[in-house]
Amino acid sequence: MGIGAFIIYFLLLMGIPLWAQAKVKKAYKKYSKVPNSSGMTGAEVAQRILHDNGIYDVAVEPVRGQLTDHYDPSKKVVRLSEGNYSQRTVAAQAIAAHEVGHAMQDAEDYAFLRFRSKLVPAATKGSNFAFLFIIAGMLLQSQGMLLAGIVFMSAAVLFQVVTLPVEFNASSRAMTQVVSTGIIKNNEEKETKKVLDAAALTYVAAALVAVLELVRFIAMYFMMDE
């Protein structure tokens, strides 16, 4: 790879995630100031959708930080960042509905969520050991070590790729639920979708960067043969 190509590659590698994060923060900042028409907090939206779908064994709790919202399948808890938990905004209801989408996936034993959960141990090991083997392989010019690093990295990349349908499906469920339950009204459907789409970009960016890195190291492996 020439110096020019490497610089472009490096800029893409750094720029794509930063661009995605900027989009998320911009959308969140904008719509966290827009009151929702239902007057419901994020916590109330989450509880409403859970109960409307017959899910009563999932708790809704606040968690510190901004955009730290997540669903914990091991403890059956939807955790909403403190702002989204208590705010009555378009952003809060969109994010709450998205996280409940994951709880619905869990309740239905959604295939991709189950598969992603099984990948966690391998993906964790892959993230921890991949670059150790790759760096060792590059320094020692060892194809074997480089290949081991690629195998470890592949597990982590697969996790990122499988995350995409899980997140897209959760957002799709979120839109369906907030519309069908009448939580959103007027032009809120468009605004809610903008929040969800911006959040989805972060997962797309992460997967794209992971795949680019994997492809680069695979190419490097074959170049060692030449």
Automatic annotation (TrEMBL):
Pfam families named among the record's database cross-references? Zn_peptidase_2
Mark the transmembrane ranges: 6-24, 122-140, 146-166, 200-224
Q: Signal peptide span per the entry?
A: none
Q: Looking at the record's lineage, which domain of life comes first?
A: Bacteria
Name of the protein in its database record: Zn-dependent protease
Tell me which UniProt keywords the record has, alphabetically. Answer: Membrane, Transmembrane, Transmembrane helix
- Coiled-coil annotated residue ranges, if any: none
Record InterPro entries: Zn_peptidase_2 (IPR007395)
